[in-house]
Design brief:
The chain is an alpha+beta fold. The protein is 32% helix and 16% strand. The chain is built from 9 helices and 13 strands. The strands form 4 sheets. It has a 7-stranded mixed sheet, covered by helices on one side. A two-stranded antiparallel sheet has the order 1-2. α1 packs antiparallel against α2. The N terminus is likely disordered.
């Protein structure tokens, strides 16, 4: 499938009347301009088109059903890049199953596919329930129209916290709901949902040297910090973040030798447990504002975000 600027325009404005003279002329102009530009400027134009059409329905990265048949390459950063040579994670494997397969988000860099399979075997051997694997990346990475800012270069994977003892059918996986592990109102893990097995699940993932970070709810991080561990060095990789009450978001380091990949700065030294008070104070304020909206202070005006320009290699991934 070849995706061009014309295709992007057609996709993003598919509800416009195609007989519109202005629409046809604008499409022709942009397509001619795109063909005449150098590679770097094509990316700038592409970024501009995506920026001005933000919020419309189609997304060129979601149009691909198969990876680019090239050597594996995680291109750019976790939140602004693309993926060549992706591999699909088999939807069933030892100790795991892929959820919501119709979304076609179970692709990753081969290193991520290897990690998920290795990790699932490890948890299975430890007597833990099946891992429910949520979103990874799309066949060629890139932007999601909803749900994620990252997951763009095939090195991120969501693992649900919901425990599942038996393999589910494909149909069941489409409809089953995730389960929250936290009680936000009381700022604690939910005693009926959270268990030591969940803590072990996070520990086993964070202890893998391939893992750069694991994002979880601050409440889950707080619970992990309160537990006794013989060695808690891995806790430094477990980073508190908004949401992440239903799943943990595992992020791998850039693969060795992959020069197109931009690593995130490593987490600060230590286990990160001394930094949890800010989150508790912030969540308490949010709960107070829910009960009494008059306590909420007006938010300062947000500066307009500049469109992100992807690495030039992403033009090949998008247009091949």
């Amino acid at each position: 499938m070849t995706v061009t600027i014309q295709g992007i325009i057609n996709g993003r404005y598919r509800y416009e009347k195609e007989s519109s003279f202005m629409y046809r002329e604008l499409t022709k102009f942009i397509y001619r301009a795109f063909k005449s530009l150098h590679a770097e400027n094509k990316l700038h134009l592409l970024g501009f088109i995506l920026f001005i059409s933000h919020g419309a329905n189609a997304n060129p990265w979601e149009a691909f059903k198969s990876p680019l048949d090239k050597p594996a390459d995680a291109i750019g950063s976790y939140s602004n890049g693309c993926l060549a040579g992706a591999k699909p994670l088999p939807i069933d494997g030892e100790g795991y199953m892929v959820m919501r397969t119709s979304r076609n988000r179970y692709y990753g860099h081969p290193s991520l596919v290897d990690f998920v399979q290795d990790y699932a075997k490890l948890t299975h051997q430890a007597g833990l329930p099946y891992l429910l694997v949520g979103d990874m990346s799309m066949p060629r990475g890139g932007n999601f129209s909803s749900g994620h800012a990252s997951h763009q270069i095939g090195l991120d994977a969501d693992i649900w916290f919901k425990r599942q003892q038996k393999m589910l059918s494909i149909k069941q996986r489409e409809n089953i709901s995730a389960v929250s592990m936290v009680d936000l109102a009381n700022y604690r893990v939910h005693p009926k949902n959270w268990s030591d097995k969940h803590a072990q699940m996070v520990q086993l993932a964070a202890s893998d040297e391939r893992v750069a970070r694991i994002f979880v709810s601050p409440i889950i991080k707080q619970e992990l910090c309160a537990m006794e561990w013989s060695d808690d060095a891995w806790l430094g990789k477990v980073r508190p973040w908004w949401g992440h009450t239903y799943h943990m978001h595992v992020r791998l380091n850039c693969p060795e030798g992959d020069t197109s990949c931009v690593d995130q700065a490593p987490p600060p030294p230590g286990n990160g447990c001394n930094d949890m008070q800010w989150w508790k104070t912030t969540y308490a304020q949010i709960e107070r504002e829910k009960k009494d909206p008059s306590l909420k202070k007006p938010s300062p005006p947000k500066a307009k975000k500049k469109p992100k320009i992807k690495p030039s290699q992403c033009e090949l991934v998008l247009s091949s």
